[in-house]
Amino acid sequence: MSAEPAPTTSAWNLPNILTGIRILLVPFFAWALIGDHNAGGQTAWRWIAVVLFCVAIYTDKLDGDLARSRGLITNFGKIADPIADKLLLGTALILLSAFGELWWWVSIIMLVREIGITVLRFAVIRHGVMPASRGGKLKTVLQTAAVLLYLLPMTAHWAWLGWAAAIVMAAAFAVTLVTGIDYVLKAMKLVRS
Q: How far apart, in whole angstroms, are the C-alpha atoms of residue 89 and residue 86?
């Protein structure tokens, strides 16, 4: 059972502000990752990118916890929170692929799924808001863990960490596909009802 937004809950609340901060961190994260690449890798820029990524991801957990515990769930938050996640993870996937650290086909398929589900959510919004499912949340956790492992500067030097990153990314990829199908089925059911 998902929590419904309170009718008097303002969209201008702390969880939604944290979501906005996460969106604002994305260009700074990209800037640091590009700075690392332009400097030839293994620089302080990579660690700055890792820290910014971790801070942004922490705001995702924090805004969700605050929204649920304080009854601050809003329809705006249900839509903006997944978009913020997609911006952060999508930026990371694109840059990792552009720098040759992740296969393009993995990033493309994951991004097509993410964009497709976001468009689908907007297409069915007049029938109701589709909140993130448990599978969708697991997908986000796996994608986040995989991207973090790929971002760590040590991954290039420690083979076991590179293998761990690849295994977690494979799991994230599989869950991304399965949950994408699940969201399509839920959208069809929502439209019918």
A: 5
The whole-number average pLDDT for the span 92-96 is: 97
Which of 8, 61, 2, 55 is closest to 32 using CA atoms? 55
Sign of CA dihedral 27, 111, 146, 156: negative
CB-based contact 186:133 (threshold 8 Å)? yes
Helix extents (H) in the chain: 14-38, 44-69, 75-98, 104-123, 134-151, 159-192
**Residue 171: C-alpha distances to residues 28, 89, 111, 139, 177 (Å):** 28, 15, 16, 9, 10
Cβ neighbors of 19 (< 8 A, separation 6 or more) are 59, 60, 63, 77, 80, 81, 84
Closest CA to 167 of 106, 117, 91: 106
pLDDT digits (tens, 9 = 90+) for 96-153: 999 999 999 999 999 999 899 888 888 887 787 776 778 888 998 999 999 999 999 8
Q: Structure pTM?
A: 0.84
Per the structure block, which two tokens stand in for 102?
A: 């992740």
Q: Which of 59, 170, 164, 187 is nearest to 118 (CA)?
A: 187
Per the prediction, the chain carries an average pLDDT of 87
Place of tokens 């069809």: 188
Helix or strand (DSSP H, E) at 155: none
Residue 6 is encoded by which pair of tokens? 């309170």
